């Protein structure tokens, strides 16, 4: 899985990166310090999970998700990692997989990542089921076999 860490606090970015580096199910990760940088990275690369802070300079994490939805982009699984518990309801209204409060423990981030990966795998399976009839139609010969 590919992860984008979006947090303006360098210590939080470093801690999350250290946790992700120990996981065998993480193919790679990048960091963004604000919503502008995050939007740029999201336009250029595909990510399976966002580790997203709520309070970012200029544009909040929740507003960032709104912008992505306005662009018509499919949202990756979102885990909010923040020091502000008062935004939890808004986060879950915006399809958050989990909401982790700072300061966080590696075990807690691990549980949130497991939940995000399960959601991502489930969404991929659902898309495959949707496209299976189309794939079958391509596999059938265009004309009847005359043997």
Identify the notable features of this structure and list them briefly.
single chain, alpha/beta, five-stranded parallel sheet
Give the SSE layout.
Elements lengths: L1 E5 L3 H12 L6 E5 L2 H10 L4 E4 L8 H10 L6 E6 L5 H6 L2 E6 L4 H34 L8
Descriptive account of the structure:
With 147 residues, this protein is of the alpha/beta class. The protein has a single domain (2-139), classed as Response regulator (Rossmann fold, 3-Layer(aba) Sandwich), CATH 3.40.50. Helices cover 49% and strands 18% of the residues. It has helices spanning 10-21, 35-44, 61-70, 88-93, 106-139; strands spanning 2-6, 28-32, 49-52, 77-82, 96-101. Strands 2-1-3-4-5 form a 5-stranded parallel sheet, with helices on both faces. Helix 1 (10-21) links the parallel strand 1 (2-6) and strand 2 (28-32).
Gyration radius, in Å: 18 Å
Distance between the termini: 47 Å
Return the structural class.
alpha/beta
List the strand order in the largest sheet.
2-1-3-4-5
Helix content: 40-55%
Biggest pleated-sheet summary: 5 strands, parallel
Total beta strands: 5
Order of helices and strands: EHEHEHEHEH
What share of residues are in beta strands? Answer: 15-25%
By CATH, the architecture is named 3-Layer(aba) Sandwich
Shape from CA axes? globular
Uncertain runs are none
């Amino acid at each position: 899985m590919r992860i984008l860490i979006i947090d303006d606090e360098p210590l939080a970015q470093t801690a999350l990166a250290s946790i992700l580096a120990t996981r065998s199910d993480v193919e790679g990760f990048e960091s963004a310090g604000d919503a502008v940088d995050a939007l740029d990275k999201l336009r250029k690369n595909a990510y399976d999970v966002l580790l997203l802070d709520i309070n970012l300079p200029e544009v909040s994490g929740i507003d960032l998700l709104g912008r992505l939805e306005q662009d018509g982009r499919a949202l990756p699984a979102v885990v909010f990692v923040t020091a502000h518990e008062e935004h939890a309801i808004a986060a879950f209204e915006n399809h958050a997989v989990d909401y982790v409060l700072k300061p966080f423990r590696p075990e807690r981030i691990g549980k949130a990542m497991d939940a995000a990966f399960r959601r991502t795998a489930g969404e991929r399976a659902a898309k495959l089921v949707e496209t299976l009839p189309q794939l079958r139609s391509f596999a059938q010969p265009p004309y009847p076999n005359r043997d």
